[in-house]
Design brief:
3-stranded antiparallel sheet, globular, Creatine Amidinohydrolase, alpha+beta, Arc Repressor Mutant, subunit A, 5-stranded antiparallel sheet, single chain
């Protein structure tokens, strides 16, 4: 299990370096997301969830539509959240790209909060102390921490499990348990420090496996169960793999949502005109100490 987590982390680190090379101004975000996921597969692993390329006030859950024409601009703040799994064991990490000088302090605030949280891990902190460190770091840099986004546990084929790891100070005396994997992910914002759901969602995951009558819905559900299990998937993946028409895909997904077979992950955004930065890494706690997952191979 540990070897698979570590392998996923190494591949994710390499995928991040690849992403940084291709995500330049004027890059097409759809093409970049597809290339990052293809890179992961060629390395012998699989995406743990669709590559999130969340722009500006969008904090999370933004992945390109099929053949999306969105272009990265120099003025953008882009969160790049990538997940890799090896046999279901997940590494999860994110970084933020900006080419605009005025946004670099925001990006650094999220990065510094992550650095301080990981430094604290060596002292066996409570979960509440991690949140307090993140909030203090981001506040001292002059930004708001996004209070209703959290880090989380990681488990086999589950990218979000208990406990939630707050990005704000909370009275939570729990400590991280040996043998378990976790992700810490601070978000710094120039906005309200509170995200809301947008109406649009391009990411979904199985909620409950049950029989459905609609042929399109049944085809989607069977394919997802076989290929992604309980992990999130993108609408664009289904377009590519199932070769369904746009109409068939919309009908099938709508039926699965109605039957509560799948759940949607809407884009999460702060107020319009604001900017959000994210930094994230994963770790495992062992008897010997903390193993950071997303890092170069030794």
């Amino acid at each position: 299990m540990l070897e698979k987590y570590v392998s996923a982390g190494h591949i994710l680190f390499e995928a991040q370096q690849f992403a940084k090379k291709i995500l330049e101004p004027n890059a097409n975000l759809f093409e970049c997301a597809e290339k990052i996921e293809e890179f992961i597969i060629k390395k012998g692993a699989k995406p743990a969830f669709p590559t999130n390329l969340s722009l500006n006030e969008n904090a999370a859950h933004q992945t390109p539509d099929w053949n999306d024409k969105t272009i990265l601009k120099e003025s953008d703040v882009l969160k790049v959240d990538i997940g890799v799994h090896v046999d279901g064991y997940i590494a999860d990490a994110a970084f933020t790209i900006t080419y605009a000088e005025e946004h670099k302090k925001l990006v650094k605030a999220a990065e510094l909060a992550l650095e301080n949280a990981f430094a604290l891990l060596e002292k066996n902190p409570t979960i509440g102390e991690i949140g307090a460190t993140i909030e203090k770091t981001i506040s001292e840099q002059g930004f708001k921490v996004v209070q209703n986004l959290t880090g989380h546990g990681l488990a086999r084929y589950l990218q979000h499990t208990s406990p939630s790891i707050p990005n704000i100070a909370k009275q939570d005396s729990r400590v991280f348990e040996e043998g378990n994997a976790y992700a810490i992910e601070p978000f710094a914002s120039t906005g309200d420090g509170y995200v809301r759901e947008a109406g649009k969602a391009n990411i979904f995951a199985i909620e409950e496996q049950r029989s459905v009558r609609n042929a399109y819905a049944r085809k989607i559900l069977e394919f997802v169960q076989e290929n992604y299990k309980t992990l999130p998937f993108a609408e664009r993946w289904l377009v590519r793999e199932l070769k369904l028409s746009g109409f068939a895909l919309k009908v099938g997904l709508k039926q699965l949502l109605h039957e509560k077979c799948i759940r949607a992950y809407p884009i999460l955004h702060d107020r319009a005109g604001s900017f959000v930065a994210q930094a994230e890494n994963s770790f495992i706690k062992t008897k010997e100490g903390i193993i950071t997952l997303v890092k170069p191979r030794a």
